[in-house]
C-alpha cells in the first residue's frame, strides 16, 4: 500500500487512545489508589489483577467510562478491606474522579492535520464506545467532530456494530477500514465484518482491550503513528 495509496475509501476511526489519550488518566488514578490502599499482604501486581477481574465483570453489566471505573475501585476496596467500606473511604474514592473532570482532551500528535487531509479524498466516520454523555463531552472538547460525516457512540463494539454502521450509510465492507488501537474492539470485529483494519498500538491501551492478531492477515495494516495513515490512504 505504500506504492499505491488508496483513495475513495471509508475510514472509521476509534476515539479513545487513537485520536486522543485516554487510558493514561485511568492509569494515574490507579497508581494513586494503590499508594493510598497500601495493602499489608497483596502487592501492586496482585491488586491490579483483582481490579482487572472486577472491571471485566462490571463492563458486561454496566458498560464503560469513569463512573463504572470508580464503581470498580469501590468494589475493589471492599474486597481488600474484607468489610463494607465506610462513607469516608467512599468519599476518598470519589475524589479520584477529579482527575477525570479536570482532564483535558489531549490529541495524539498529528491527528487534526492528518484528518484534514484524509477528509479531502475519503469518507470519515467516528465510532467510539462508552458512556454516551462522557464520550460526547470528549468529542466536543476535541474539536474534531466536524471532520467526520457522522459521530457514533455505542455501548459496545462487535461485528454487528460495524455491519450496522456501514449499512446505515450504504458503504461496502470491502472499501471500508477501521482505524484503532484496540485489537478486541477495533481490529478483530471489523475484520469479522469484512472490513480492513489499521492497528495503531498505544502503550497505554487498557489490558482488557488486548487480544492476539493474526500476523498473516494482509487486511490488517500495522502503523507506528497516526500520521503514517497519509502514506497509505
Written overview of the protein:
The radius of gyration is 19 Å and the shape is elongated. It is 44% helix and 12% strand. By secondary structure, the protein is an alpha/beta fold. The chain has helices spanning 23-37, 44-62, 66-81, 87-95, 98-101, 111-118, 132-142, 159-169, 183-192; strands at 10-13, 123-129, 150-154, 176-180, 196-199, 220-222. β2, α7 and β3 form a beta-alpha-beta unit. The chain is built from nine helices and six strands, in the order βααααααβαβαβαββ.
Cα Rg = 19 Å
How is the biggest beta sheet arranged?
Answer: 6 strands, parallel
Beta-strand fraction estimate: 5-15%
Helix content class: 40-55%
Q: Between the first and last Cα atoms, what is the distance in angstroms?
A: 8 Å
Residue stretches low in confidence (pLDDT < 50, at least 5 long) are none
What series of H and E elements makes up the topology?
EHHHHHHEHEHEHEE
List the total number of helices: 9
Query: What would you call the shape?
Result: elongated
Structural class: alpha/beta
* Rounded mean pLDDT score: 89
Number of beta-strand segments: 6
Spatial strand order of the main sheet:
3-2-1-4-5-6
Task: Note the topology.
Elements: E1 10-13, H1 23-37, H2 44-62, H3 66-81, H4 87-95, H5 98-101, H6 111-118, E2 123-129, H7 132-142, E3 150-154, H8 159-169, E4 176-180, H9 183-192, E5 196-199, E6 220-222
Parallel strand pairs: 1-2, 1-4, 2-3, 4-5, 5-6
Helix pairs in contact: 2-3, 8-9
Summary?
The mean pLDDT is 89.
Keywords:
alpha/beta; six-stranded parallel sheet; about 230 residues
Amino acid at each position: 500500500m505504500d506504492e499505491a495509496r488508496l483513495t475513495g475509501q471509508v475510514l472509521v476511526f476509534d476515539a479513545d487512545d487513537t485520536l486522543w489519550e485516554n487510558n493514561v488518566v485511568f492509569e494515574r488514578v490507579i497508581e494513586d489508589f494503590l499508594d493510598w490502599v497500601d495493602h499489608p499482604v497483596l502487592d501492586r501486581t496482585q491488586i491490579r489483577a483483582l481490579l482487572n477481574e472486577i472491571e471485566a465483570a462490571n463492563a458486561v453489566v454496566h458498560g464503560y467510562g469513569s463512573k463504572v471505573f470508580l464503581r470498580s475501585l469501590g468494589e475493589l476496596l471492599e474486597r481488600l478491606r474484607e468489610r463494607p467500606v465506610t462513607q469516608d473511604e467512599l468519599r476518598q474514592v470519589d475524589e479520584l474522579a477529579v482527575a477525570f473532570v479536570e482532564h483535558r482532551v489531549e490529541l495524539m500528535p498529528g491527528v487534526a492535520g492528518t484528518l484534514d487531509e484524509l477528509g479531502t479524498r475519503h469518507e470519515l466516520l467516528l465510532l467510539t464506545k462508552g458512556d454516551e454523555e462522557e464520550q460526547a463531552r470528549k468529542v466536543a472538547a476535541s474539536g474534531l467532530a466536524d471532520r467526520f460525516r457522522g459521530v457514533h457512540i455505542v455501548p459496545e463494539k462487535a461485528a454487528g456494530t460495524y455491519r450496522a454502521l456501514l449499512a446505515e450509510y450504504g458503504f461496502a465492507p470491502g472499501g471500508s477500514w477501521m482505524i484503532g488501537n484496540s485489537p478486541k474492539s477495533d481490529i478483530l470485529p471489523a475484520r469479522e465484518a469484512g472490513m480492513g483494519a489499521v492497528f495503531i498500538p498505544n502503550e497505554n491501551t487498557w489490558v482488557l482491550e488486548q487480544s492476539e492478531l493474526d500476523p498473516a492477515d494482509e487486511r490488517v495494516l500495522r502503523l507506528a503513528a497516526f500520521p503514517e495513515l497519509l502514506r497509505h490512504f
